[in-house]
Structures are given as structure tokens and as C-alpha cells.
Amino acid sequence: MITLPARYVSTGVVANGGMGSVLFCNDSHLERPVAIKVLKDPKQRRRIIDELQALLKMRSKHVVQVYDVLKLDGDALGIVQEFIAGVDLFDDRFKKLALDSFLQVIWQISAGIRDIHAAGVIHRDIKPNNMKMDSEGILKIYDFGLARDSGPAAMTRGFVGTQGFGAPELYAMQATFTQAVDVYAFGATALYLATGDLPEELCAIPPRSAGRSYFSALPLGIDQHLCDVLDACLAPTADDRPSMGAVTDVLMRYLLRDKHQALAVYGGSPRYLNANNRAVNLELKGVGAIAINYNGLDFVVSAASGEVAINNRRPNVGDTLPGSCVVSLGDAHRRANERAFITFDVSHPEIVL
């Protein structure tokens, strides 16, 4: 029986896992529920210290917050951390979601891992039951018992992780790993949430993904470019996987599809481009003309003729307009009354969870 400081009143609920126990308590001083992760084995002391160091570095809405560290009976240590009510992502309600809900969930996972990596930490045990959704729909990643700082010292002897979600390089006897192991685990987690299972070859020891196109085969209707990014997360070779920052950015683009708006002001008159009005044509007769289309992700030049420039550069069909720019009709050799200038500004919507 673990003796806790008097301020922590046990609820009587205990969860036991491979890396230790979690005691669910109420903090009587601050009147809030907490989860206290405990490791009794002195050999595992390093793991809980690693978890504490990792959590203290986190400044993310998608990572649990650490409140305190306790020295308990004997060599036991405990981390007092934010309690997240509800079920983890192994629960059936998170499997086989509709496309938009699926993208929202995996975007939150990717954002959390991105923030973990930004702190110079590798989680090493990303999987559905190491994350929960709180009462406000915010996903939180937890359980840093395997976490390590990234860099040349990131090495372990033998496999440590979870079969099915562990990257191939983790199975080497002298495993040197990078943040790419979390990218692989993210890809496996996303695939599990999409299908409710993992293919046999990913559960092999070591996994044999062989660069298959898993996400393209799903009935969700995911855009092919996004499928390619998600499949790349499961690349057998670490160097072939994208960064979590890049994955998060791509997911955000697709979550915000058809939610942008641009304002073009020409001759004092505003013209709006959005999901309901996808095209605008801007012309100065006998001088130049440009057509701009909204494809749901970007505002793109669909046609240009004559003397046209965007921020003093000649546009090409297919160019994406920057978030804020000036479109000029008429070159600099013309008099002021023979030229026209259009300001073009794009709104930046946020993901609403």
C-alpha cells in the first residue's frame, strides 16, 4: 500500500500497467481530481524521472500537465498530473469515424506529437490508449514513461514500446532512434482508428509495412495527397517519414477545406471569394486581366494575360496567391491613370473542435 501526502485523497480506483500503477485521487488543497503515476521498482526510477522531465517541458493543450513530483515509500516516485476523465482511443466510439471527425482526431494527435518534438523529446509509446479526449473535446497525450530527449544519446538495448505501433528500427538490438519513431506510431494509430484494427504485417516482429498504400484503400474518401502523407508516416525507413510539423500542417489544410475567405478590393469595390463564390475576374481593358479561383484549399491563378503582376512578379497559371498581396494591372512605364491596383487579403480560419 502506497502512503500518499494527506492532501491527496484516494478515490479507491487504481489502474495497473506494464510501466507502473496510476492512483486516482482528489487534491484537497486545490479541489481538483488528479492522476498519480507510481513506479515502485528502483530499476524503473529512471523512467518516471524521464516522464517528469518530458512533461515539465510541455506547453501544449494536447499534452497532459504535470503538477507535482512525490517521493513515496522506499524508492517509489509519483508524478501528480492532470486527470483526464473518459475513455482512451481504444474505445469503439473512436473507431471508423466519419471523415471530418477522423481528421479532427488525428490532427489533434499530430499537434500534440509536434509539440512534444518541439520540446526536444521523443515519446516512444504513441498508441490509442495513451491518449484521451477531455469533456471539451480536446485530445490529450499522456504516459511519458518511455520518453527520451532526442539526439545522439537516444539509444536503447532491445525493443521497448508496443507491438503494432513500434517502428521497425526499435526492434534492433542496439536501437538508435529519432523522432521518426513517433511519426510511425502516429501513422499506425491513425490507421487503427480508421479501420478498428491493424494489418497483420504491421503486427509482425519486426513490422513489414513495405511502403503499402494503406490509406488510399480506405472507404473514407481521403484526398490522395493526404493519403500519400499518411502512408509516408509508415515508411519502413525512418528518413522517409515526414516530420510531425509537416503532417500537422497538411491535416490542418484539409480540415479547413472550403472555410477560407478572400477579399479583393478593386476601384473601391469589394469582391469576396469563398465556398459560395469561387471565382473572380479582374481586368483593365486593353492592359491586363487575371482570373483567380478558390479550390477549397488555396486561391489560385486560373488565367492571366497582358500586363499583370502579383507583388511585382509576373504570375503563372497555377500559382497560389499569398495571404496578403497587391495585384497590379499595367506595367510601371504607364502613367498612374493607366494602371490599376487590387489589394488581395485572405482570412485565416481556425479549427473549431
From TrEMBL:
GO molecular function list: ATP binding; protein serine/threonine kinase activity
Species assigned in the record: Cupriavidus oxalaticus
Lineage: Bacteria, Pseudomonadati, Pseudomonadota, Betaproteobacteria, Burkholderiales
Name of the featured protein: Serine/threonine protein kinase
Keyword Kinase: yes
Domain Protein kinase: 8-255
Keyword line: ATP-binding, Kinase, Nucleotide-binding, Serine/threonine-protein kinase, Transferase
InterPro entries per record: Kinase-like_dom_sf, Prot_kinase_dom
Highest taxon above the source species: Bacteria
